[in-house]
Amino acid sequence: MSLANILKTYAAKWLTSRTRVRLGRARAELSRRLRRKPHIIYYFHRTDDPYCQLMVQVLPDIASRFAIEIQPLVVEKLPANMYPDPVRYEAYSIIDASRLARLYGLGFSLEATVPDRLAVGMANRYLASKQDDPEFFTLAAEIGAALWRKDLKAVRLICGLADVGEKDIENNEKMLRELGHYASASVHYAGEVYVGIDRLDHLERRLNALGLGDEQVDLEVHRHWRLELDELERTIAGQTVDVFFSVRSPFSYVGVELISELARKTGVGINLMPVLPMMMRGMKVPRTKGRYILADTAREAHIEGVAFGTICDPLGTATWRAMSIGFAILDDEQSGAGEQGQALAFFRSFMRGVWSQGIDGTTDKGLAKILKNAGLDQAWIGKAISREDTEERATDNREEMFRSGSWGVPTFRAGGETFWGQDRMWAIIDALKQ
Questions:
Q1: Both 177 and 253 in a single domain?
Q2: What CA–CA distances, in Å, run from 194 to 39, 290, 300, 370, 372?
Q3: More confident call, 339 vs 248
Q4: CA torsion through residues 377, 380, 382, 383, sign
């Protein structure tokens, strides 16, 4: 491994470490006390973000249970380069928000479609004028409900002409950037970001650790999927989950670990569909987004019991070699010559190696270690398919993922439905049960 890669590995290990998180939190709390400031949480709201419609229904409960203040801030224009496929993302997010609403027992229109743009602009400006109103969340929930059911008359009746200039919303968007993030439905507290309702359990734990709450973690219901696995074996065994993933995606690593656990305990089959990472397809991941993904993966991996943090970035050669070997093993399995499950064992071992063990996947030595850890012979290094064939098959998988309505990894397809994200095991189980 080169000196540059060694330094990157140590930097990533520090960035993702629990020690850094604890020190950052202690420093933030000391600073707050010295300045005699209250505990303030900033929430960034956008009326046409379906996840925001869920957030405004649960944040009042957070405010009542914890000794904190929540300051809502309305935003409208988000950085376009943070969303590689905004059309698919927008369509998917409405479906996903509907699923989350059912899981958490919240209101969200089952017939929701992309809301009217003029009504959205009116709603954003009205709510921006009400950011300091104690009734903000009630108003936001009511207006949002009208927007998502396309009740334009109700939106006009509530909002009227808001006395707020473009500069107010622009200032909120600037503050969002200065806090180091880019997304609405995000909550910011003392240096950390929690995006969406399914990250608020991290915030609950943090506030409880500070002695500010009721010691309860009410918003972790999406993590309870393991509780019913033992009872599901007879009802969902024999079904298959398609798994679109990239070995260079840390979320894919966690997702493949979790879906493997689900499959092992229920008998569900896994159909692996590797794709090339965005940055090897000519796309860019902004640094701000990359840092958040790494930090968010670290805390998700920690709470799910997945080792993570000692990283040797597989971008480039390591990814090509891993996929070329992985496809060769898949071919062996599909021909009936090889033992089933070997490809999954290899890809799990590779991702565990580069994301938690710091193994260099560019070298024969590193790949031999990864293969050994998977219980496979290092002779597979010499059986890898060509780069041209690897790219062709990865492209076919990517096109299939696009046809399923997703744009990125990890994506899972089960029971005729598509799910994006390593944190959707509960939704996959629900689809399989149907």
A1: no
A2: 16, 15, 11, 34, 38
A3: 248
A4: positive
